[in-house]
Write a structure and sequence with these properties.
By secondary structure, the protein is α/β, with parallel strands linked by helices. It has 2 domains: 7-177, Rossmann fold, CATH 3.40.50; 190-282, Pantoate-beta-alanine ligase, C-terminal domain (Pantoate--beta-alanine Ligase, Chain: A,domain 2, 2-Layer Sandwich), CATH 3.30.1300.10. 37% of the residues lie in helices and 19% in strands. The chain contains 10 helices and 9 strands. The protein has helices spanning 11-23, 39-48, 79-86, 99-102, 121-124, 128-143, 155-167, 197-203, 205-218, 223-237; strands spanning 7-8, 28-33, 54-59, 93-95, 147-151, 173-177, 241-248, 263-271, 274-282. The protein has a 6-stranded parallel β-sheet with strand order 1-4-3-2-5-6. A 3-stranded antiparallel β-sheet has the order 7-8-9, with helices on one face. A hairpin with a 2-residue loop joins β8 and β9 (274-282). α9 (205-218) packs antiparallel against α10.
Length: 283
């Protein structure tokens, strides 16, 4: 049985470990997660291991990025299982702080990012990106990694993080990890466990319908028409509702009226209480 990675829970312990690694001449990588790890998360450790000597994984369910009525209290917390999974990777350390460690009493600073957060997930989940930007800023400044990696499944989140890291001159190289998909193409997500068997079968149609839309747009169908058609196809396939289907410019996420390259298709559809995110490049 593989040895479980060491766990630290305070900034002081984290920085002491990193200082020792720096003294050895090692580069540091950070994989921020909220736990409930699956093979998508593990792939991020594998990718960052190609860039740095010492990969660190953080596990922290961040309360400030959950909105009213969202699943913060129900979000799966599976630290022991997460550590067992990380034992199969090159993870050098797990940083698993408490809420009190991340947000000490009297903490009043919030990081907000304009423009790129004022659409899509920012509209659907008010305050979400301020919570993300604040906690990621904290993690980057606590760890000061050479490289940090975030999954491309949360494409808008990745774009927001790249933006504020650039704007705030935080000296870290932010990279994206490819979306990991299940056998039927559904993007891997910690929330997929909430789907029952019937819902799970429907969920597998999301990526298929989006791929068909990309083909239609590339073949010349007007973008708005394709977006509307795809929304209806998702509803017909059994999705409860569709938050958005949009072709966007990858860095700014501004919706495109006419196809230009590069482009990204972003979408969120719901089955019951589960929100399924997906995105694909249009190449």
């Amino acid at each position: 049985m593989s040895t479980l990675p060491a766990v630290v829970r305070t900034v002081t312990e984290l920085r002491a470990f990193i200082s020792d690694q720096r003294n050895l001449g090692h580069s540091i990588g950070l994989v921020p997660t909220m736990g409930a790890l699956h093979h998508g998360h593990l792939s991020l450790v594998d990718v960052i291991s190609q860039h740095v000597d010492t990969p660190i994984v953080s596990i922290f369910v961040n309360p400030t990025q959950f909105g009213e009525g969202e699943d913060f209290s129900e979000y799966p917390r599976t630290e022991q299982a997460d550590l067992e999974k990380l034992a199969t990777t090159n993870t050098a350390l797990v940083y698993a702080p408490s809420v009190e460690e991340m947000y000490p009493n009297g903490d009043v600073t919030t990081v907000t990012v304009d423009q790129i957060t004022e659409m899509f997930e920012g509209t659907e989940r008010p305050g979400h990106f301020a919570g993300v930007a604040t906690v990621v800023s904290k993690l980057l400044l606590q760890c000061m990694p050479n490289v940090a990696i975030f999954g491309e499944k949360d494409f808008q989140q990745l774009a927001v993080i790249k933006r504020f890291v650039k704007d705030l001159h935080i000296p870290v190289n932010v990279i994206g990890g490819p979306i990991i998909r299940e056998a039927d193409g559904l993007a891997a997500s910690s929330r997929n466990v909430y789907l029952n068997a019937t819902e799970r079968k429907t969920a597998g149609q999301l990526n298929v319908i989006l791929k068909n839309m990309i083909k239609s747009v590339r073949d010349g169908e007007p973008i708005k028409q394709a977006e509307n058609k795809t929304t209806q196809q998702l509803l017909d396939a059994g999705f409860s509702s569709v938050d958005y289907v949009s072709v966007v410019e990858p860095e700014t996420l501004k919706p495109m009226e006419e196809l230009a390259m590069p482009a990204r298709l972003v979408a969120v559809a719901r089955i019951g209480k589960v929100r399924l995110l997906d995105n694909m490049p249009i190449e």
